[in-house]
Design brief:
globular; binds guanosine-5'-monophosphate; binds adenosine-5'-diphosphate
Length: 205
């Protein structure tokens, strides 16, 4: 599970559904860092994705990701257990559908952290969601962050993919540059505070 509190009350006809926030942007831009900074400042459920990639040192199964073997991931996809899934850097990543739907129905805001293809799939199915693109200050800085995280094996592929993803930034409701972390956290909180369902406020753009 995640660090988030579970909803304390059961659903009732009066419960307004939670809002769905989709945070995307190039690998290494700092999406995970930013979102984890929000924990404790805003109540939300952070979706735990499934992936076929091996765990990085320190990553915990069921917390950072649900690590699935290839055949199990395929089975989940066939059983339509993913809200969206996409291939990234020779691995597959997907958002388990059931917990997201349960939290939204219980009135809890939900955050998905995905790459851009997955975000576009969600946009087709859930156009009312709020789409936020996190941008690096520069590609050079992005490369530095990937290296600092230890992604030495496929850095070039991730930078190439970043160029493609950044060309799609206009598809998003909001863009937040993650240069100075505290400024980016403030920008993200402003988007969350001003978004109401599909009524997207552009003030943080
Ligand atoms: P993502 O989830 O987008 O792949 P991460 O959150 O894992 O990215 O961040 C990638 C690396 O960049 C990490 O080492 C993280 O500590 C670092 N990082 C994140 N935000 C910043 C920032 N504003 N300034 C400098 N380094 C950062
Ligand atoms: P990483 O291997 O760096 O953890 O993740 C690689 C990319 O996959 C990142 O851009 C990350 O946001 C994205 N990602 C993580 N989980 C999901 C998911 O459930 N669906 C999709 N489409 N992308 C994801």
């Amino acid at each position: 599970m995640t660090d988030n509190d579970k909803p304390s009350s059961t659903n009732s006809p009066e419960t307004a559904p939670g809002r769905l926030f989709v945070v995307a942007g190039p690998s290494g831009v700092g999406k995970d860092t930013l979102i984890r900074e929000l924990i404790g400042r805003w109540p939300f459920y952070l979706s735990v994705s499934a992936t076929t990639r091996p765990a990085r040192p320190g990553e915990v199964d069921g917390h950072d990701y649900i690590f699935l073997p290839e055949d199990e991931f395929t089975r989940w996809a066939e059983e339509e257990r993913f809200l969206e899934w996409a291939q990234f850097s020779d691995q597959r990543y997907g958002t388990p559908r059931a917990p997201v739907e349960a939290e939204l129905a219980a009135g809890v805001d939900v955050v998905l952290e995905v790459e851009v293809q997955g975000a576009m799939q969600v946009k087709e199915r859930n156009p009312e969601a709020v789409f936020i693109f996190i941008e690096p200050p520069s590609l050079e800085e992005l490369e530095t962050r990937l290296a600092q995280r230890g992604d030495t094996r496929d850095i070039e592929a991730r930078i190439e993919r970043a160029r493609v993803e950044m060309a799609l930034a206009d598809e998003f409701d909001h863009r937040v540059v993650n240069d100075v972390l505290s400024d980016a956290v403030a920008g993200l909180l402003s988007v969350l505070a001003h978004s109401e369902g599909s009524q997207n406020d552009q003030s943080a753009d």
